[in-house]
Amino acid sequence: MGNIKDQLAKIVSSEFVSDHAEEQYLYARDPGTMPPAKPDYVVMPGTTEEVAAVVKLANQNRIPVVPMGAGLVLSGLTRALKGGIILDMKRMNRILKVNEICRYVLVEAGTSQGTLQAYLKKHHPALKHSIPDAPPGATIGGNVLIHGSGHLSHMAGYHSDMLNGLEVVLPNGDITRIGSCALSSDWFARAPLPDLAGLFIGWAGTTGIVTRLAIKLYPRYKLNDVLVFVTDQPDTVPDILYRLSGVQVAEDITAWMMPKPAWAAGFQHINILFSANTKEELIWKRNLIRASVKPYIDRREAGFMAVPPPMKPRFLKAPSPDLARFADLKKGGGFEYVGGIMPPDRFPEAYRTGVEIAEKYQAAYSLGARMIGVNHSMMFFYAYAFNRADSADVERAQLALEETNQKTIEMGGIPWKAEEPAQKQIIQKMDPNMFSLMNRIRGLLDPNGIMNPGNWEVN
Ligand SMILES: Cc1cc2nc3c(=O)[nH]c(=O)nc-3n(C[C@H](O)[C@H](O)[C@H](O)COP(=O)(O)OP(=O)(O)OC[C@H]3O[C@@H](n4cnc5c(N)ncnc54)[C@H](O)[C@@H]3O)c2cc1C
After folding, report:
1. Where are the domains of the chain?
2. Which end of the chain is more exposed for a tag (fewer CB within 10 A), N or C?
3. d(CA 443, CA 433)
4. What's the CA-to-centroid distance between 137 and ligand 1, angstroms?
5. Can you give the pLDDT at residue 362?
6. Burial letters for 213-232: b for 16+ Cβ neighbours within 10 Å, e otherwise?
7. Which pLDDT value is given to residue 2?
8. Positions in the chain short of pLDDT 50
């Protein structure tokens, strides 16, 4: 690969290409439990044309290309499993257009959640996007492409559901637009054309590199509030969630269960976030939410936790600091979670499984479930913190994650943003014709197999 570095430097300039040991070390790993895998080069393109030129060069020389946003997926999907180029998209961070009336924003894929959040607050205070609880450096592209979820997901679904259109560099270097932007100057919808966005969502960067995307924006109301409903009977949670979601006034509904602090142990807490433009509207929404679960309160089986006003900002903060705080519990920088995308009626089983596995492996754990859509599905998370410097601790977390992935599949769920070994667990259970179709699509798009190889593969 002697002169490859020079050729890459001709495309993006020498300051944005590296084959130094320091970069190779850092880009070989993420905060999760997957073992390091070293890239040969790290490249930071600045434009779509540069991405296309890098991909063409890689294709000619059969060099693997791994697209990367912030590398915060935690499940090792941005490691270079077969070496090659890590294409770090963070320089492509421009906010290109906001259409207030049609409520969408067009960004480059490497734009961070924090940048977009701050930009909208300053320039379009009546609008917001759905923010995941990931660190603010996480990119819009990386999050949408893994079917992420966030603070408006109860109202509007997965972040991939909020996608209006894409610009993507195909594995042969062709630049393609998908959605209304394929023929209009506006990126307002994916309908009514054939929905080719699905060729790039959920594929772990194995089908192309997204360079631009438009996502939906939503009204930002002046007043925000939270209610926290608490029970100690997990079997009642599916019905409680069904009732809470049925009134359709919450923006976000997230359950959380932790063994510490002691007052939280054994309880299922459900945060219900809602907002409004006037006090009257806020009270009306609060009353609707309260009324939906009144039978549980009347039977004294559950109730609302008092949240003193000074504590409310902590619950309302987006991103929520709580999971990030838990992630650092063991110090030493190790954190990973299984997100089981599941039907909400599996909540009791999912909860008991999480507690059992954590106790079996003596893992520090935090469990939770974000409702996606109007109780259409949930992302049940089993988060484990560990100390990277303690190999026994890392191994315990790894075993706990592997067993959690397996149990998630057995319960009828699907591990989200699955690690490479968990992808194999999924493939084993998947309709073989679906996997065969995936392979045929990949073969057509990427006959030389250069895109993030090692992912969504059997061997
Ligand atoms: C404390 C904590 C809380 C979290 N909470 C949430 C949450 O509430 N909701 C949530 O959804 N996630 C959450 N996450 C998980 C994760 O951090 C986010 O999903 C994050 O947005 C992923 O974005 P990224 O830029 O880091 O993606 P990366 O890790 O860089 O990439 C993710 C995948 O997308 C591919 N990819 C990236 N960019 C491109 C591109 N331009 N073109 C093609 N493929 C690409 C990569 O190859 C990889 O397969 C959390 C993580 C932490 C640490």
Report:
1. 4-90, 91-219, 222-417
2. C
3. 15
4. 10
5. 84
6. bbbbbbebbeebbbbbbebe
7. 56
8. none
Q: Which helix (H) or strand (E) holds 178?
A: strand 175-179
- Among 217, 144, 212, 202, CA closest to 178: 212
- Tell me which of 1.10.10.200, 3.30.43.10, 3.30.230.10, 3.30.460.80 is the CATH number of domain 4-90: 3.30.43.10
Q: Tell me if 172 sits within 8 A of 59, measured CB to CB.
A: yes
Residue 322 burial (CB count, 10 A): 18
pLDDT at 388: 84
Pocket test for ligand 1, best of 29, 51, 78 (most atoms within 8 A of CB): 78
Assigned superfamily of 222-417: FAD-linked oxidases, C-terminal domain (3.40.462.10)
Nearest CA to ligand 1 atom 13: 134
Token pair in block for residue 101: 């009336």
Nearest atom in ligand 1 to the alpha carbon of residue 159 is 11
Ligand 1 shell residues, CB under 6 Å: 66-74, 77-78, 89, 109, 132-135, 138-139, 141-143, 145-146, 148-150, 204-205, 209-210, 323-324, 327, 335, 452
Amino acid letter for position 355: V
- Residues paired with residue 304 on neighbouring β-strands, in sequence order: 229
Say whether the ipTM exceeds 0.90: yes
Per-residue model confidence as pLDDT tens digits over 301-327: 999 999 999 999 999 999 998 887 787
Query: How many angstroms separate the CA atoms of 103 and 188, rounded?
Result: 8
State the alpha helices, DSSP H only, in 226-346.
Answer: 237-246, 279-292, 294-298, 312-316, 322-327
CATH 3.30.70.100 fits 91-219, yes or no: no
